[in-house]
Amino acid sequence: MSPPSKDRLHGTLDALILKTLSWGPRHGYAIGRWLRESSDEAIQVEEGSLYPALYRMERQGWIQAEWGTSELGRKARFYHLTPRGRKQLAAETERFAQFVAAVSPILLPR
Amino acid sequence: MRPLGVGRQLKSLIWGDSIRDQVDAELDFHLEMLTQELMQRGLSRESARAQALLRFGDVDAVNAACRKIGLETEREMQRTEFLSALRQDAGYALRQLRKAPGFTAVAVLTLGLAIGANTAIFSAVSAVLLSPLPFPAADRLTVIWGAQGEQKQLLVAIPDVKEWRARNHTFEDIAIIRSQSVNLTGGERPDRLLGSFVTADVLRLLGARAARGRLFNDEETTEGTGQPVAVISDAMWKTRYGGDPGIIGRTILLNGLPHVVIGVTDPEFRDLYDPTEVWLPITSAPNPNWFTRDNPAVWTLGRLKPGVTLEQGQRDLSEIMRQLGVEYPASNAGFDARVVSMQENLVGKVRPYLLILFGFVGVVLLIACANVANLLLARSASRQREMSLRAALGAGRGRLVRQLLSESLILSAIGGIVGLILAYWAIQWLVTAVPGGLPAFGKVGLDRRVLLFSTAITVLTGLLFGAMPALYVARANLNDSLNLRAEGALGGRGDVRHTFVAIQLALCIVLLVGAGLLTRTLAALQRVDLGFNPDNLLTAEFRLPATKYATPEQINQFMTQVIASIRAIPGVRSAALLNAVPLSGNWGGTSYLLAGEPEPASGILPKTQFNIVTDGFFRTMEIPLLEGRDFAATDRAESEPVTIVNQELARLAWPNQSAIGKRIKIIGPPDVWATVIGVVGNLKQLTIGEPATAQLYQPKAQVGGIFSSIAARTAGDPMALADQLRSAIWSVDRDQPVWKIRSMQSLVERDVAPQHFTMKLTTAFALLALLLAAVGVYGVMSYSVAQRTREIGIRMALGAYHAEVVGLVVGRGLRIVAVATVLGLAAALAGSRLLRNQLFGVSATDLITFVTVPLILGTVAILACYLPARRASRVDPLVALRSE
Predict the structure, then answer these.
(1) ipTM of the complex
(2) Does the global pTM surpass 0.80?
């Protein structure tokens, strides 16, 4: 099976980050840890690659960042969803559901 | 007050650094958190850090990627912020303008008129003076005229041109051209074509190409090998021959001789002057004397070699002419050549008029600028509180200045659009209204260059008139003015406004003086005694074909019959034939020698204009016969040669004596000794502005010639008899064309048309300037009256009379007018010198103009002061005292 296209990978990573932020503002490290833990360590991206994605999404206007104080009292950049980001998440989720609906009868026949 | 903009500016200066810091800090935080987490799992700090780095990936690459995206984001945000501020400014400005429709309308109209006038005049300047001529190597193309003494635009003799071609070192080519009408016969009715007799290289130099057939080759236009062939213009081919595809090879009768059409020119081809309809080889000349050295009959086109200057070409030809003067003293002594660039030759006459008009509209634009600046200043004073409020609410001073500038730029942009619309109409009018048409080889219209110019002056005026109010806001202490009354906060602004008004009035004086001098010039020209009566005078021209009228007897018989049949037309009171109708552009010149005087050692004889006329000429023209008698039927070819001289020639030749009976040698060919039988008044032959010139007349019966003009004094409108005139000619020879049937009055008008046109336009511009200046004075005075309502109220409450109040306000206005008048007259004195060459019968320092103009301006200015003053005097003291 050929690896998923870069676009799809990006799209998926974006969707996951947006999903993460949909429960409230987080800094980059927290986003990375949440991704890792909630997928049972199944998603093992290099954590650094998270940041260009965050900056890209900030540029798209899906998320916004503000400096704040972390739980340990250090200054950290906290990201939160914008209304546009929320829409983007909905669209990505919908697209993923359609993809799954289309593919599963073939790959997972009952 | 702390400038609010500085913080942001500072931040943007070090923006790159702040992004870098942000990314560094963010990635560092992540690594530190990861390290901590791993340490909690029991790793040492060092190995925890190492593993964190491993899990993180390439820190530098991530850092660089983030920084790049971050910078782009920032840049975009700045751009968006800037655009939205701009939109805000524009929207705010538009709202402000809409709130003050009176102010906006006056400002837009003022700017529109000024920008429109500038655009229209510039479109003419651009097409005439700035566009390259449509000829190959046009910058090296020249016209070479003959010159003698004061006369700089004479024809030259073909043998001389041959010597130029052989001896010069500076010209690639010198081509011969002679434009003359050509009789076309063999069709339904005889007709006259605009013809050019040329050597083959004329068409090559002008870049003509044949759309059909071919152009001449050199043999066909050279003496000895010349051929009866013709090239016709595209227009002639289409209109006269209906675009007949079989035109090539067809034979047509030109001046009575069969010529074979060998080519039709390209429709794109532009001729130098009036579009030629038919080109013939110079060898088809209607008169063999075109080729003799003593008869200058042609002019020439010369193309300089690359890198050769006009001056070098001029020196070269002058030297050859000097040599020829030595070699052929009889014909060439005193003759020179004059090399004129094609550009100068085509547009030289129009240039000063165009530049005058361009100068005028430029000044009008300055006045308009000052006007709008004053309007804006008045408004910004009343908007003082608004500005202060905005400043107090946190608008930076820079932002307020930008706000004001965007208001003025928007104002000028609207003015510019209105101006373009006005210019579009003005240009259409200009193209048709310019007498004789603009010598424009480019199209006169709103092309790219003109639009660029309009945009530039629009932006410049916006900045110029917007600068003043903006400067005031920048300087004013905005916090203070919140507490004080408006006029208190802006002391000194009134002085600036007065200065502006003074400048306006001064510039207005310059324009009024200029227009005044040109008006006086036209009046002087129209007052000039022409020496004849131009009313109810019909003129026309014809040329007999030399083939059909080969002998003097045949010509004489035709002339006699024609004049008789013209005199028989009902409504013609008297008529005569002459060679050159005054002010028609035709004229003749010759040298003379007085009996009993030796030939001058220099070989240069005195010159006189000459004209060949029939009896009845002086009576028909109403030229006074001062002494002696008119020509008579008894002055025949075989009788003793006689001549009539004008007063000027009589005065020059025989001062303090009677000219009657004196003998004078009229240099030919052939030379003729003639006896003076009469003295007549001087007349204006070439142009109304010419000084009294020696003139001499010979009887047609004794000189002959195939060319003639007609002058007929009519009882009523001369042009009503045009058809009868044609019929009278055709009753003698039904194949004989006649042309240029014009009234003398139209020739007189044509002669002063450039001055007339310039006078009309400059006067219109000067009056526009006066109107703008009057609006300016009125505006400033109204404003200052409004500001001083309290003061006026107090004075009136204390018992001042209406007249005193009026005097107070008007007196203040008068001071401004006085200063402006002194300044304006000084500037006009300096500026009017530029007009000197365009003036006639009036000096550049003409007293009447320089006295009348300040009077007119003063009257208008006082009126503009008086209206607000009168309003002030009607102020109810109680109301005034309550007013703020």
Answers:
(1) 0.85
(2) no
